[in-house]
Description:
Blueprint: H1 2-15, E1 37-41, H2 48-63, E2 67-70, H3 78-90, E3 95-98, H4 107-115, E4 119-123, E5 135-138, H5 142-157, E6 161-167, H6 173-189, E7 193-200, H7 205-218, E8 222-227, H8 230-243, E9 248-251, H9 255-263, E10 270-272, H10 275-290, E11 301-304, E12 307-310, E13 316-318, E14 323-325, H11 330-334
Parallel strand pairs: 1-2, 1-3, 3-4, 4-5, 5-13, 6-7, 6-8, 8-9
Antiparallel strand pairs: 10-14, 11-12
Helix pairs in contact: 2-10, 3-4, 5-6, 7-8
Amino acid sequence: MVKTSLATKAVAVTLGVLVIAGLTAMPAQAAPKSGLKIAIIPKAINNGYFTAWNKGAQKACKEISATCKYMGPTTATGPAQVAFINQAIQQGYNAIVISAADQNAITPALKKAIARKICIVTSDADITDTKSRTVAVLPASSERIGAAEVDWIAAQIGNKGKVAVLSAAATAANQNAWIDAMKRQLAAKYPNITLAGVYYGDDDATKSAQQYGQILTEHPDIAGIISPTTVGIRAAAQEKKSKGSKVAITGLGLPSEMAPYVLDGTVKEFGLWNPIDLGYVGTMAAAECASGNLKQANGAKFTAGGKSYTQGANGVVYLGDPYKFDSSNIVAFSKIY
């Protein structure tokens, strides 16, 4: 019982979980308006990561008495998201919180929303045109995320061998930025590790499993696979277990989904941030924007869950570095998200 209690406390302290209520909040410059309508648009609604993301968004909405609708496509593409952006425009929403499935394709629709005085906040994944949204609430810098994933796989394969990346869609800006950072980390720190290629599963479980098989077919000597997407890493773990493969796997995954594969030894370690926090902070930023309290400005601040957040260049806010999960902590974290 003592170990469980300590683990639970450690989880809360390490993540700074915003969903813990009852803490004394820092005074905000101005409270968000009550009764706002906020559209919460994920890359795809049938994804456990975004279910957790929406959990944080809905908590924020409850706290500020906003009406928030979780709506989005079942396929993670920009064109599929456009229909829901247009829906938010037509239904007179005050703000949109969106994780961009495509860094460019949704921009024209977002510009239409801005013309209708709708505030735009990207959360989890940003767009190229930073003037087409107010704030981007991101987990960490791409450099830190990509470097961490390379370090995790390097530790498992003894700093040598061939690795491949099993990513989401080729149009996913955050994934591509992380992969670029992986390449820089490999070149700078691991001269004996070769990147065999990047494969795209489009955040679809079936296609990700097929791409896992393609990697092993094209590179039978592959030592490790990095999958920077929760759908991809879970599919890779399932395939490794069913096929009895020896390839090491790491990347970004949900503790609740990955716990069985860590506990049975299929996956040694992986990481992630807290998507609940991302949804919560992104929604609070959208409410502040829709209330006239927040504009894009380097150094501008807003509060969420009693914590102050400061915009960097181009309105970017980072929550913190990815946290590593392994057999020592996976059970405790899997109970949270």
